[in-house]
Amino acid sequence: MRWCGEADEPADDVDNTEECAGDLSYEASSESCVCEAGLTRCGDTCVDTEEVCAVAIDDFAFSPASLTVVEGTTVVWTNVGTETHTVTSGTPEEEPGAVFSSGDLAPEDSTEVTFNDVGAFPYYCEPHAESMRAEVVVLAAD
């Protein structure tokens, strides 16, 4: 498992790999930054398909706060802090827990979700909803 980097936006009007962050390279046919075949996008890092993307819950923050993956990727959240937290899809105001909800995660507890649908998936910590919000962006697989 690897701790993943911040999400990057697909490059616009890019014709070389210098515009893509980290391990990503530009693919003209999809007009986006992608990993080479056999690897999975985890933020701006490309990992073996058997690996998962990881998000740390460290005291009062999700790290990274924004993560871009491809459909079929599993994201694992681990509470590495000292407080109890949750990982709850949606926002407190809109569809809380409609897609996933971890329940309470004590220090050192983990939860995971496999993202099979394309889209943006905001999530938050229920006890700390005002300050702990983040998002997973899921792109179509090739």
From TrEMBL:
Annotated region (Disordered), positions in chain: 85-106
Keywords per UniProt: Copper, Metal-binding
Domain Blue (type 1) copper: 54-138
Tagged with keyword Cytoplasm: no
A GO term for molecular function: copper ion binding
Stated name of the protein: Blue (type 1) copper domain-containing protein
